[in-house]
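Example record

The entry below shows one chain as it appears in the dataset: sequence first, then structure tokens.
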Amino acid sequence: MKKVRLITDGACKGNPGPGGWAAILRYKHHKRELHGSEPHTTNNRMELTAAVRGLAALKEACEVEIVTDSEYLKRGITEWLPKWKRNGWSTLEKKPVRNQDLWQELDRLAGRHKTHWSWTKGHAWHADNNRADELASLAAIQQSSSDGARNLRQTGRT
């Protein structure tokens, strides 16, 4: 099984506002950068989208270390998701889980791989996290995308 590292980040200019996401995939000496944007979104949705799009780019089952600077993303997938599923996608306060569509897609994609989630401090020493932040921020400002990545709302697909 291939061992891949996925570094993700999301950005939003205003929250909500124009947003961008980025994912960097590393396998041995190979590196692939993906980024995309949404015209009106939240930072949390962009963090989730980065992970979804990064995992979706993998063509086969892999052992994946996902590196994020988002506590929301890391805690959501490792701590909260099993409880939400048991509670019919409701929070402890009996409210619908926000961003349920992306959480469900992330759960589905993560299930195809052996995943390990790790957190890194944003805007610090991690070069790939800093690069992902740069790509996500530019995508949010320019409303741009790479590698055929399209605005999810425009295509209606993930």
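Notes for this example: The helical segments are 43-56, 71-86, 100-110, 127-142, 152-155. Confidence is low (pLDDT under 50) at residues 149-158.
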